[in-house]
Specification:
heterodimer; A: alpha/beta; Rossmann fold; 11 helices; 7 strands; B: Rossmann fold; seven-stranded mixed β-sheet; five-stranded mixed β-sheet; about 20% strand
Chain lengths: ~280, ~350
């Protein structure tokens, strides 16, 4: 039966379908991987804000490298860690467009940390979706900048040794000190309630850009059943038990909740005691 | 505008880029390209453009990658150590077929080297601007006028062939002042359309993807084959060279950029002594003007460079052993004098006479 025929007879309404901004292709993600959930949420948000035609996404190096084939908006594949710099180049060229980067923990917090911090402190009006699953997935499970102390990986086979490998980086906490940042939230996607909260955060991060509020990043505490060598259920249990205490969920910066229109206003208020920064001093 | 103005080489590059329609510049401070970035920082904000001081040369080249992917004319500039940092991004630009102009105002190396003029990045520019199988057009200006003219050309070549392009200058050309006539400003409406750009599909076409990854071996192979077909077109149509007093020359001095200025003086001095000397000056270092060199019919070639001998390899490759080739050069910021080059020419001429 043709779809339109069915519609005319029963007036059925679609209540769940593939987001337009997600192309009808098969992804390369492993069973139980959370990338698929998060990418779908990003696509739903692009649909709901009706910005696909003026959105440019930046794909990382890592498991999400081929996400340029999954998203329906124009896409750019960046070198490892350089997505925030690439996003900056795009946004400065097309300031009225929506620019987002989708990055994993090795990409964003290790090789690309300089690009991450400086795009944030410049207050680039872009959106970053940060997948933190505490491991390098694509290359087969090496220690990541966010791997937990004592976590066993291919390159920390006796567990992450703090004497030799140091401590993990808490990205939202680190970026929360920067004046250029408008919005930071850490979420997870381990169940329907969490997925709804994650979508709300991702939508805020995109809406902020549309409204010119400023740099917004959503960190998604994620799982990697394949490289954690667990079933998807075990992976979520391990994430809840070990990652969430180390990477607590919540909002780490929200200049609008603090009563400011955007990151610049919040930064200005913070700089009031400095004659130079507040513009009270002559140049 | 045909008014002659006195400008520094670095500023001439910047002004010519603006006239070519470049409105986005991404850089990181380094000597001796400083005046170029400073000129952009002064001019671009007043023109509705972007001057952005990046956190590193790595970030700067990736901002160029993003701006170019978005479809605008953009550039970055640096000097030798900074160019090394950019090579990752340049390789990605080549792999993604992105246009863009990269200026290298060379200084001495290796390592931190010096801040004095040098031509020691010839190998890097012509052979290895990053990993992978690729080349890019390399222009070697020899005057402040050429700093302007070749920068202007570089934007057209970059867009026309969808390739990054290098301006290989040096600290001497960057810092010196000469009269220059600027090219007329390009009409923004006349700049080439970029239907391939990731600039938002507006619901009017399938999504564009800017990418250098091809996990399928056959696809990557074909992608490289296609790019090398473009290189053949560049070799056919974009070679530039200047020859001077070369028709009857027994001794031809091959030199580019700043070294060619010294070589020209030495050639003139040799002619005054009755030695039939000439100058062969490649303006494109890749593609190399090999055929023009073969057609010189010199009895001997002297290559003069501000390095330990790099372009001399291309001279020998072009001549395939048919003509004796010698090298004279200094590095580390020491500039050979015309008299020193003249001594070399004399020695070669005496050898030919015996």
């Amino acid at each position: 039966m043709a779809a339109d025929e069915q519609m005319s007879r029963t007036e059925e309404k679609a209540v769940f379908q593939r987001p337009h901004a997600l192309l009808p292709v098969v992804t390369n993600y492993c069973p139980g991987c959370t990338h698929g959930i998060v990418e779908r949420l990003v696509a739903e948000v692009i649909d709901e804000l009706d910005v696909e035609g003026r959105t440019i996404g930046i794909a990382p190096v890592g498991c999400a490298v081929t996400s340029y084939d999954f998203f329906g908006c124009d896409m750019i594949e960046a070198a490892h860690g350089r997505a925030p710099a690439v996003a900056t180049g795009v946004k400065r060229s097309l300031p009225d467009h929506v620019v987002f980067a989708y990055q994993g923990d090795g990409d964003l917090a290790s090789i690309g940390m300089a690009e991450t911090v400086h795009a944030a402190t410049r207050g680039e009006n872009i959106t970053i979706i940060f997948i933190n699953n505490a491991i390098y997935g694509m290359t087969g499970g090496q220690m990541a900048p966010t791997s937990l102390p004592n976590q066993v990986t291919q390159t920390s086979p006796y567990g992450r040794d703090l004497d030799t490998a140091g401590y993990p980086i808490r990205v939202c906490e680190l970026l929360s000190t920067l004046d250029g940042v408008a919005y930071l939230e850490r979420v997870c996607v381990d169940g329907p309630k969490a997925v709804r909260a994650a979508k709300k955060a991702i939508k805020r991060a995109f809406q902020n850009q549309v409204d010119g509020v400023g740099y917004s990043l959503v960190e998604v505490v994620s799982t990697c059943p394949t490289n954690w060598k667990m079933t998807p259920q075990e992976a979520f249990a391990w994430m809840r038990e070990n990652m969430l205490p180390y990477y607590p969920l919540g909002v780490y910066r929200d200049v609008q909740a603090d009563g400011f229109a955007n990151a610049a206003e919040a930064a200005f208020a913070r700089a009031q005691d400095c004659p130079m920064a507040s513009g009270k001093a002559g140049r | 505008m045909t008014e002659k103005v006195l400008m520094k080489g670095n500023e001439a590059i910047a002004e010519a880029a603006l006239r070519a329609g470049c409105r986005h510049f991404f850089g990181y401070p380094i000597t001796p390209q400083t005046e170029l970035a400073a000129y952009m920082a002064r001019k671009l904000p007043k023109m509705g453009g972007t001057y952005l001081q990046a956190e590193s040369e790595i970030a700067a080249i990736n901002m160029l990658y993003g701006a170019s992917a978005a479809g605008v004319r953009a550039m970055t500039s640096s000097s030798s150590p900074g160019i090394s940092l950019k090579t990752e991004g340049i390789s990605y630009m080549a792999g993604a077929d992105l246009p863009g102009v990269i200026v290298n105002v060379q200084r001495g190396g290796p390592g931190l080297g010096s801040i004095q003029p040098s031509q020691s990045d010839y190998f890097q520019a012509t052979r290895a601007m990053g990993h992978g199988d690729f080349y890019l057009p390399v222009y070697a200006p020899s005057t402040v006028q050429e700093m302007a003219d070749l920068t202007y050309v570089a934007f057209d070549v970059a867009d026309g062939y969808r390739t990054p392009v290098v301006i290989l200058a040096d600290g001497m050309l960057g810092q010196m002042m000469e009269p220059v006539v600027m090219p007329d400003a390009a009409d923004p409406a006349s700049l080439p359309a970029k239907p391939w750009a990731a600039s938002g599909h507006a619901g009017a076409r399938p999504h564009n993807v800017i990418n250098s990854l091809h996990l399928d071996s056959e696809k990557l192979y074909q992608d490289n084959v296609r790019r090398f077909q473009t290189y053949e077109r560049i070799k056919r149509d974009e070679v530039r060279v200047e020859t001077y007093r070369i028709e009857d020359a027994d001794v031809v001095v091959a030199a580019f950029g700043a070294a060619a200025r010294i070589a020209r003086s030495a050639v003139n001095a040799a002619r005054e002594e009755g030695i039939r000397a000439g100058l062969f000056r490649p303006i494109t270092l890749w593609p190399y003007p090999a055929r023009a060199l073969q057609e010189c019919r010199a009895r001997a070639v002297l290559t003069v460079e501000l390095n330990m001998g790099q372009m001399v390899e291309d001279v020998r490759l072009a001549l395939e052993g048919a003509t004796p080739v010698s090298f004279f050069g200094k590095c580390g910021g020491i500039i050979p004098t015309p008299d020193e080059v003249l001594d070399q020419i004399r020695g070669i001429a005496e050898g030919l006479g015996e």
